[in-house]
Structures are given as structure tokens and as C-alpha cells.
Amino acid sequence: MKKPQAAVGRRCRKQASSLAGREKHALSSNQAPDGPCTARAGTIPEFPAGLAKGQEKVVLQAPVSPYHLFRDTAEITVFRESLLSWYDQEKRDLPWRRQAEGEVDLDRRAYAVWVSEVMLQQTQVATVINYYTRWMQKWPTLQDLASASLEEVNQLWAGLGYYSRGRRLQEGARKVVEELGGHVPHTAETLQRLLPGVGRYTAGAIASIAFGQATGVVDGNVVRVLCRVRAIGADPSSTLVSQQLWSLAQQLVDPARPGDFNQAAMELGATVCTPQRPLCSQCPVQSLCRARQKVEREQLLASQSLLGRLDVEECAPNIGQCQLCAPPTEPWDQTLGVANFPRKVSRRPPREECSAICVLEQPRALGGAQVLLVQRPNSGLLAGLWEFPSVTVEPSGQCQRKALLQELQSWAGPLPATRLQHLGQVTEHGGVRDDGFCGHIRRPISALWPSPQVVHTFSHIKLTYQVYGLALERQTPVTTQSGARWLTREEFHTAAVSTAMKKVFRMYEGQQPGTCKRSKRSQVPISASRKKPSPGQ
């Protein structure tokens, strides 16, 4: 039953005041997290009976109303049971879940979870499924991955984005095999401390799903669920809010089924409690959702029909502005409903860069036409991947042709400068990924490519490629430089190259007579250029 507002306010103030006298503890971590939250610690005002061993009692270090907390065992029990019951009925059939559930060997189970969690960082489930299946078929054990080459890893990872993930996953596998006797650490703390590339979220996911440790996890989906369930409107990327979210996750995790509970929370955020148009009527914990209650309250206020008789609970901090509520400068938006939570984090605009890049091809090479690729350095952006020769240039374009020709000749020797043709430009637009699934294509020039620009999501950089092509009539030039090689068109499409390079090559193919129908990869129906591009293109 909902409490009268006056009584609720008195109780909130009394409980908030009592927090100041409680003992302080820290849940600390030595490694930088790899999830969306950057907190090192969690803060839990009170742990009811029945929580997992090792969960400590801590207090908030800033004014926060108990309105944003779970106050008693009964409420937590209802949340756990409702969420797990829903998950048992509605969970998606995913290959990594089948792999983990059917594996009796703990190290192989942990490896299966580890691979999936790394691949799923900042990447959609639908995209990961095929990559995960191919990865586990090629390297079914940690020992198999540890013995693979970085070239092989990059090649299979190509197109998935954030390529350092694959490299660090292999580094972790080698450490387990060479230094840890082939056994994966069993706790979140040791996973995070001992394995490269394993942050707070991934460590918690492996420990809970593979080894049954009762430790909470916080990823983007969990952030959204918790912010709505407890009406947390402050910036989720701030230290205080991050601490509180990790604390809530640790408080809620079911000690009997921690792996299932964590997956259920993420599943809820991915399929029901979505960023836009959440399916509140299908939510198993809607009765506990403060965001939903606030929507009802605002609707009642707007109607004016029941003004003066509202009994919907709201935040009532005892001192100043509640640190978990939205700031007064961001009023409630009636049109968003529960999607007012969580608060959208402002992002820095991407920095802009410009490069000139060339597809250098020998059409008459023995064995079929070949293109020249050079390898990027082993550290930094797109480390170890292959790309067409390129140079950084000024956006004005001055001297870019001359600089590019010099770069090409450093790899391939003397070249006919008059055959170097400018084809158009490819823009890598700033965002959070470099795999192309969040961007869209504006086709390059030709009868089939009416527009000269390709827009593609690429990390935090807006990188515009001025694309050139140079087709040689004679034999392939001799390359004396290491880190360069000639590939056939078929080899190019299976090589360790980024999606950006594939878009550059598509532009080049679209300019070459007789090449548009050479492979299904390069075919673009004419009607497609008239349709509004979708995020998956």
C-alpha cells in the first residue's frame, strides 16, 4: 500500500539522518573497470539478512534519500524472485549461454563466458552471435587461443570493432596457460587483478556466471534498470552515482543464483527496459519501479483531478539537494515517461582528422588482380590491422596528392603519377564503435554511387578519407619494405582489415569498369541508393 506523502517525508528524513552514524567501509578495486561505470567502490546503506557472504555494510558519503534505496529484505526478495522467474521463462537462446550451461569443466566454462563478455562490450548481440560461434569453433579452449597468432586473432575479429579487445583476450589466455597453470582465477577480485583487459564488469560476470560467486555487475543495461527502479536521475557517469549503482547491484544479486540473476538484469535492460519505448507492461519488477510511480504521479498532477490527495512516494532528502536526483536545471519531461531515467551523459564532440588513402592495384598480376596493403603499428588505434597506404593531410587538401604519391612510392617503388585518380571521400564519423553497424552509407560517385561520401562510426574520431585509386598496367612492383603485402580481392575480404577499409575498397570497385558485379560483397542494388539508410548498413 502506498504511504501518505507527509508520513513518507518524515520517514525519509529520519532514515537519512540515521545514516550519518553508521560505520563506513569501502569496496575497493585496483583495476580500471571496463564497463560504462568508472567507480572503484560501492556504497550500501544497509544489508538485510540473507545477503551473500562477503557483502559488507557501508554508508553513503553524501546526502542521499532512502527513497533511492532498497530498505528491507522483503522488497529485495520480491525483486529477486520476480526477475528470476521472468528470466526462466523469457531468456533468449544464445550460444554462449548454451556453451556455459552445458560445460562441466570450470576453466572451459569460464573461457566461454569470458569470450562472450568481451565481444559484447559496446556491440549488439545480433552482431556477436556469428563472431562468437566462429571463434569457439576455431579456438575451443584457452590453450588453442594462446597458441594462435595475433594475425589470426585480428583476422577473425575484423569488422567487430574495438580491436584491442581481441588482442587483450589472447594476452589473457596466454597468461592463464603460461603463468597460472591453465586455470582461470575463480573470484572477481583475482580475475581483475591477474588478467589483462579484465575490468570490474567482466570479472564480475565471469565469477558469477562460471564460478557462482555472489557478486553484482553493472553494464549499460543494468545502469538503465537500476536508475529507473530507484528513480536515480543524477549523472550515471559521476563517481557518486557509479558507486551507488554498484552498491545496489551487489545488494540485489541472488546468492543462490548469482550468474542467472546478473544475466537476468542485463536481459531485462536489453529486451524490456530499453532506452526508448520501454515495455513497462511486460516488466516483472514494475511494482517496485520508482520511475513508473513517478510517471503515475506526474499524470495525476497534470490532470488536477486528484490534487491534494496524492499518496505516491517521492524523494525527500533531509539536507539540501539529493545527490541521486536529477538537478533542478533538468525538469521532468512528460513526453519521455520512465525514459527520463537515466540522465543522458553529455559527450565530447569527436576530433576531426583527414587522410589521403590509395587503393594501389595490379589488375594483371599472376593469379588475379592484387591490391597493396600495409600493416599498422602494433600499438594504438587499429593496432596490427592491414590497410591501404595513407597519409595524414590538412582538410584543405593542399599537397595531399604529392604526399600520398611519396608514401606509395616508399612501399612500391616508382609509380606513374598521372594515373593517380581521386575518387571521392569516406568519412569515419565519431561515436563509440568502429565496426560500421551504427553508421550509414552515402554512396560514392558513379552511375551506381550517386553521392561522394560514406558515413561510418569510428571510435571517438571523425576521420575523413580522401580516396584515390591507381591501377598499374605492368607487373607488380617489388616491395622491399617489411609490413607490406599484395593480396587478391578474395584474400582482401578475409584479411584482418577494418570495416573502414572495406568501405574504401567498395568505393574503388564502384569506379572500376566491369567490377561492380564481380562479387556479392561489392554489389549494391540501384534501388538501395533511394532508400533511407538503416543503422545496420
Quick tags:
single chain, 537 residues, alpha+beta, 9-stranded mixed beta sheet, 17 helices, 37% helix, 10% strand, globular, disordered N terminus, disordered C terminus
**How far is it from the N-terminal to the C-terminal residue, by CA?**
50 Å
**What low-confidence regions span 5 or more consecutive residues with pLDDT below 50?**
1-60, 430-455, 515-537
Structure annotation, total helices: 17
Q: Tell how many strands the DSSP assignment holds.
A: 9
User: Roughly what fraction of the amino acids lie in strands?
Assistant: 5-15%
Major beta-sheet overview: 9 strands, mixed
Q: What gyration radius follows from the Cα positions, in whole Å?
A: 27 Å
The overall pLDDT average reads 78
Helix content: 25-40%
Q: H/E series, N to C?
A: HHHHHHHHHHHHHHEEEEHEEEEEHH
Structural class: alpha+beta
* Coarse shape: globular
Structure, described:
The chain is α+β, with helices and mostly antiparallel strands. Helix content is 37%, strand content 10%. It has helices spanning 5-18, 73-90, 95-101, 106-120, 125-138, 142-146, 150-157, 164-179, 188-194, 200-211, 220-229, 239-252, 258-271, 290-303, 400-412, 489-494, 499-511; strands at 351-362, 370-375, 386-387, 390-392, 421-429, 440-441, 453-457, 461-471, 484-488. Strands 1, 2, 3, 4, 5, 6, 7, 8 and 9 form a 9-stranded mixed β-sheet that branches. A hairpin with a 7-residue loop joins strand 1 and strand 2. Helix 11 (220-229) packs across helix 13. It is globular. Residues 1-60, 430-455 and 515-537 have low confidence and may be disordered.
